[in-house]
Amino acid sequence: MNNQVKHVFFCAIVVAFGGFIFGLDAALISGTVRFISAEFALSDLQIGAVVSAPGFGVLFALLITGVICDKYGRRQALLIISFLYILSAVASVCAFSFEMLVTARFVGGLAFTSLSVAAMYIGEIAPPKLRGKLVAMIQINIVIGLSAAYFANYMILQVSQMDADWVSAMGIDTHTWRWMLGIEIIPAVIWLFLLILIPRSPRWLVMNNRITEAKSVLQQFLTTEEVNKELEQIQHSVELGDKHTLSTMEAIKAMFGSKMRKAALIGLTMGVVQQITGINAIMFYAPTVFEQVGLGTNAAFFQALIVGLVSVLFTVAAVLLVDKLGRRPLVIYGLAAGTISLFMCHYAFSHATYMLTPEQISTFANEHKIASMHNMLNTAFSSDIEFKNQLQTVIGVEEFRRHEGQLMQMATNVNANMILIGVMGYIAAFHFSIGPVMWVLFSEIFPIAIRGTAIPMFALLASIVSYLVQQFFPWQLSHMGASNIFLFYAISGAIGFVILFKIMPETKNKTIEEIELDLDSTKRKVSVA
């Protein structure tokens, strides 16, 4: 490996590290839900607001990120993003109220555009033969960040339960959730300083007529013979883009015209289905989900750690196989497997029962100094909603939220193995198929003239659905119950499967022009005639 290739890898790794920060930021909150809810006495919708605040913030960031990237450059945009991550993490740790915590996490959401900016930067510095692998590092970094968050949460929870003076002195036992959120600060600071070491994008420099600087940057990545050729290609591409790029309204009109209607329907379906099947409800509320199985808090945190490891394993597999097996098989079979897994969870939860024995009630009441729980004696509930509502009536909402994991562990009678297999099966299927493949398809099914409008628009759609799923999951859990939530996710997956099975083409080893022809029904009709 020569020095130029090494430098490309270094810059790509540095930029892709933003995916790790994203995954860390997104998943650390999953371990804090129970603690934050108790400390600030939050309602279901307030819990949803804390978790989904970054998802709300990114909606605004997506509208201005492109402008910032074009005006100030990709590198400067990444530096701003890294600072926002640090600011958000510090403010979250220091939050003294629900409102301050939501605001701090909203600021972190403004930085979630690190994914699209990182992909843009890497795509503009990487040689064509390395571009696919280097861009794919972003997705791998995301799931590694998710896993690191689950691991950090689990370890901090274990430390907080230790009977040691240093644990109390550092406040880990009393400020557990603040330590969890504070984990992000160190890697975010490291990323900020590493970004200072990378050069500006040569394509951006050419777009701003800074040709000499662009050539100097290209010399860091390419051999002398390749520099002039690459510079000419970039200049030609920029000139071509200026001539053929449509305005936003023209691109939207073209996108939903008869020629591009199928591509738009694929983008719409992928953007909605990727999120409406509940991936971020499970990933961002992982311990809460597993507590519904009756595992208890410690076991629920450990299962969340397993979720992270499964995510990493199957994302790596997808990256390695997407060019060998093709996009369509991964999406179709993966979506089918994920839908079946969600139906398994629904079936198991729909047959669950909940009952506290006299011994359990007596032990719990004495342990937590609760005067009377006689209304719960020998009463079997077939619905988790009825069981939780009755408990909240008997012991109070705050006391219930504080001990929900323990109470669910004592009372739940459910096929836990089926639910665990279902959840892990869905996580594996998602990260092997529609999770990473959606972004590959987005980069292939839209012609160059409308791609700059189409991809951000459908990314915004996916972000809106993701925000709604995160915001309303706690409310759904209290009012719909786990069984109906998973049924809704499964039906959504089934609908997406039917649509994509009928209209999604295989794009492997095809040029953008060939894919455009496959999706153009008007050309197909002409050729038949």
From TrEMBL:
It is found in: Membrane. The chain crosses the membrane at residues 7-33, 45-65, 77-98, 104-122, 134-157, 177-198, 263-287, 299-323, 330-349, 418-442, 454-473, 485-504. GO terms for cellular component: membrane. SUPFAM superfamilies: MFS general substrate transporter. Keywords: Membrane, Transmembrane, Transmembrane helix, Transport. It is a multi-pass membrane protein. One of its GO terms (molecular function) is transmembrane transporter activity. Residues 11-508 form the Major facilitator superfamily (MFS) profile domain. Pfam families: Sugar_tr (PF00083). PROSITE patterns: MFS, SUGAR_TRANSPORT_1. Belongs to the major facilitator superfamily. Sugar transporter (TC 2.A.1.1) family. This is Putative metabolite transport protein CsbC.
